Amino acid sequence: MDPRVADLLREFELERIEVNLFRGASRDIGAPQVFGGQVLGQALMAAYSTVESHDVHSLHAYFLRRGDFNAPIVYHVDRARDGHSFDARRVVAIQHGEQIFNMSASFQVREPGLEHQVPMPDVPPPEQLTDNGTPPPGVIEQLPEKLRRMFEKQRPFEFRTVEPFDYLRPRQMAPTQHVWLRAVGRLPDDERLHRCLLAYVSDYNLLTTSVRPHGASYLSGDLIMASIDHAMWFHRPPRVDDWLLYSMDSPSASGARGFTRGTLHSRDGRLIASIAQEGLIRIAKPKE
User: Fold this and answer.
1) Which of 70, 105, 111, 261 has the smallest C-beta neighbourhood within 10 Å, fewest atoms?
2) 44 in a domain, yes or no?
3) Helix, strand, or coil (residue 70)
4) Which phi-psi region, left, alpha or beta, contains residue 214 (left: φ > 0; alpha: ψ -120 to 50)?
């Protein structure tokens, strides 16, 4: 198994410390704080650990404080409802005695019903694109040490962007982007794990979509960006070790916040999930 995938899977092996209490290890991905997708995915795994046979179909989460990657995170699961068709859970993530994140999630037993979906956007296949989830080596060398460290960390996912973005010389672009993504290696055939990993990777690239119309880049140091909330709806079973097309658009930015929507389609065109997120986009004040 690819060591990057093996390390990713260890992130989702939560330690049960009480009936509804779980502890997850944090990872340093080079950012100043814990990656939001890690907290989102681990919280969903904690909720799943209290559910018998239902599948998650939606979640709504808020990021309250920055996570410390030097310390584990404790997840408390509130079993709000156990029903025949639906289960409901509320998860609170705690670090250093404070809430850093909370999430509500709903789980449903599988049942047949009406079906329709929007078609997958017509974009080039991943084979015609290069892995550009990080800046080229020549660009990374020009970045400040903190940013360089973030991009030098090996990631468990590869990303192939249809509309590449110049990190050092950003220009105004439409508030949309399409990114093919997949895990760098084969994953176990565990659908719960794939849904949790889908939540994990759904936090990549969303917020940056909302700064494209402004010709801005978080690498410039002029912007403070952070996820505020994250909502997700799971429509069909995912495989995150096969190509998924992440289509994103940002209808609005205002009040130092950017709003972005996203859809995830499988390679064969099935709509897998829908996502919405609002994040902080604050213009940094120059230091005196």
Assistant:
1) 111
2) yes
3) coil
4) alpha
Please check whether residue 280 is in contact with residue 256, taking contact to mean a CB–CB distance below 8 angstroms. yes
Could you tell me the two tokens for 147? Answer: 């940013």
**Would you please indicate which residues are annotated as catalytic (active-site) residues?**
203, 227, 277
- Domain count within the chain: 1
DSSP string, 212-270: GGGT--GGGSSEEEEEEEEEEEE-S---TTS-EEEEEEEEEEETTEEEEEEEEEETTS-
What is residue 203's three-state secondary structure? coil
**Is position 58 within any domain?**
yes
Complete DSSP assignment for 169-217: S-----SEEEEEEEESS---S-HHHHHHHHHHHTTSSHHHHTTGGGT--
DSSP symbols for 119-130: PPP----GGGS-
d(CA 95, CA 114): 43
Q: Could you tell me the CATH number of the domain that includes residue 37?
A: 2.40.160.210
Domain span at 249: 3-110+131-283
Beta partners for 263?
A: 247, 274
119 found inside a domain: no
Residue 218 has pLDDT above 70, yes or no: no
pLDDT digits (tens, 9 = 90+) for 117-160: 999 999 999 999 988 766 666 666 666 666 666 666 778 999 99
Residue 150 placed within a domain = yes
207 CB neighbour count, 10 Å cutoff? 25
Residue with tokens 């990303």: 159
Return d(Cα 77, Cα 20) in angstroms, integer.
5
Q: Which residues pair with 245 in a beta bridge?
A: 180, 265
Alpha-carbon span 285 to 280, nearest angstrom = 15
Residue range 63-100, pLDDT digits in tens? 999 999 889 999 999 999 999 999 999 999 999 999 99
Global pTM reads 0.92
